[in-house]
């Protein structure tokens, strides 16, 4: 799941660095791209209810979920609901996002009310091509989508009972002003199984600056937990015959 103001297209640079035998599904959140006419849900519960049917009909084997920034929270909430339905992912990866209960700390999203401030926020954060700032119509579109997404995030409240029984991998950039080490570390309390932390050179969009390295790391992490789950299942089946 992608970041605020972004779209599923954001993940295209990673595609060529993931295994050929993986089936990739990039969810496009409402309000942009092919679903630009669809309104962004007001609450996270509404967002999950909207996305869940499209996701579950695609699940026919082991799978992992990954979300970046705003998408990390969406992925986490989807994982909670999928686990409740008995369809948990083998791994949840969250990137460049404070732990859910810390969402909003240091962000100051409420101050971003004008196009100029939103454009400045985009410029300071990085991840937007410099030439985009010279295109008034494109900036109008980008700042509108960003404002809607930030309003969505301002309405988000973490559920204190949201501890997963799913392995959790947390990724962040060492120079990220929105999701530094102190804000991502509390993700450890959101999984009762295992939480691994990966710090990367760079800022909020570190993964798009080094797609080959990140793709290789994500592949290793998914394969490790998949292998572990298969070994655990084999051990259980062996014990049942003892």
From TrEMBL:
<dbReference type="InterPro" id="IPR020802">
    <property type="entry name" value="TesA-like"/>
</dbReference>
<dbReference type="InterPro" id="IPR001031">
    <property type="entry name" value="Thioesterase"/>
</dbReference>
<dbReference type="GO" id="GO:0016787">
    <property type="term" value="F:hydrolase activity"/>
</dbReference>
<dbReference type="Pfam" id="PF00975">
    <property type="entry name" value="Thioesterase"/>
</dbReference>
<keyword id="KW-0378">Hydrolase</keyword>
<comment type="similarity">
    <text>Belongs to the thioesterase family.</text>
</comment>
<dbReference type="InterPro" id="IPR012223">
    <property type="entry name" value="TEII"/>
</dbReference>
<protein>
    <recommendedName>
        <fullName>Thioesterase TesA-like domain-containing protein</fullName>
    </recommendedName>
</protein>
<dbReference type="GO" id="GO:0008610">
    <property type="term" value="P:lipid biosynthetic process"/>
</dbReference>
<dbReference type="InterPro" id="IPR029058">
    <property type="entry name" value="AB_hydrolase_fold"/>
</dbReference>
<feature type="domain" description="Thioesterase TesA-like">
    <location>
        <begin position="4"/>
        <end position="153"/>
    </location>
</feature>
């Amino acid at each position: 799941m992608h970041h605020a103001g972004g779209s599923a297209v954001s993940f295209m640079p990673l595609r060529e660095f993931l295994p050929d035998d993986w089936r990739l599904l990039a969810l496009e959140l409402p309000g942009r791209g092919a679903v630009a006419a669809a309104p962004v849900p007001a609450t996270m519960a509404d967002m999950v209810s909207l996305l869940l049917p499209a996701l579950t009909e695609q699940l026919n084997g082991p799978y992992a979920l990954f979300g970046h920034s705003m998408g990390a929270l969406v992925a986490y909430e989807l994982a909670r609901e999928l686990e409740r339905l008995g369809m948990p992912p083998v791994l949840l990866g969250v990137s460049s996002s404070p732990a859910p209960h810390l969402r909003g700390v240091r962000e100051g999203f409420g101050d971003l009310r004008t196009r100029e401030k939103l454009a400045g926020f985009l410029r300071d954060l990085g991840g937007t091509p410099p030439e985009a700032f010279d295109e008034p119509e494109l900036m109008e579109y980008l700042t509108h989508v960003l404002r809607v997404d930030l309003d969505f995030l301002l309405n988000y409240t973490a559920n204190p009972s949201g501890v997963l029984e799913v392995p959790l991998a947390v990724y962040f950039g060492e120079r990220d002003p929105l999701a530094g080490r102190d804000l991502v570390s509390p993700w450890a309390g959101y999984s009762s199984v295992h939480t691994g932390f990966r710090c990367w050179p760079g800022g909020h969009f570190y993964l798009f600056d080094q797609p080959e390295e990140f793709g290789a790391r994500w592949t290793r992490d998914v394969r490790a937990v998949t292998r572990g789950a298969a070994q655990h299942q084999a051990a259980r089946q062996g014990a049942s015959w003892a």
